[in-house]
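Title: Prediction job returns without error message
Component: structure pipeline
Severity: low
Priority: P3
Assignee: unassigned

Description:
Job completed but the reporter wants confirmation the result is attached to the right record. Sequence as submitted:
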Amino acid sequence: MNGNTFTEKVKEPYYYNNMVYITRRERFNAAHKLWVDDWDEEKNYAVFGKCANPNWHGHNYHLYITVKGKPDPMTGFVVDVKVLSKLIKKYIIEELDHKNLNLDSNLIAPNTQPTTENLVIAIWNRLAPHIENCQLHCVKLYETENIYAEYFGE
């Protein structure tokens, strides 16, 4: 070994020592209404716009869960994405899909606006304890193609 090539300098595959981020996308549909009971209708519509519709409105949400870790030397995986998908479906999708976020889900605390911002925090808090052998890095939730929120557990 003359030390002139990259492969001669590396004792194990270089990629096992690097942090890798992997993201799983899931989707769900849900309805909600943003409304503050202490405000009159005019103020609610001024602040929340169409989201204050008294008969609710819905979104086709796109949820991105990113975890981070070092690839396992045997599998090359940071996480088995099939297992990650099952966790997301069990703890998040089943709780939110085709539900009214104001009435049908206990993911959002009572008297808390079911905004995208509050949802990413609630999703993080529900999912994080179930992630094993890697770390939850980011919860990103698209409410529309133009609006999304991200949460990094901070």
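Comment from assignee: result matches the submitted record. Helices lie at 6-9, 41-48, 81-96, 116-127.
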